[in-house]
Amino acid sequence: MATNLNIDMKLLDEVYQLGNFKTKKEAVNVALKEYIQKHRQKDILKFLNNVDFDKDYDYKKARNR
Q1: For residue 26, is pLDDT > 90?
Q2: Rounded Cα gap, residues 2 and 4, in angstroms
Q3: Which of 14, 16, 27, 65 is most exposed by smallest CB count within 10 Å?
């Protein structure tokens, strides 16, 4: 699907060079995928920060059952 975007060329050129991409399209697609991945990881970290861990849990004792 063809889309016209007004992209900051300095940013695009920097991403293009840092990633050694063959095309600008590839650079944009990878940048978008990394953006999505980063935000999903933040959501996972928020979830993990809400988990209550038992400080007295002895994993070594549980292994010997």
Answers
A1: yes
A2: 7
A3: 65
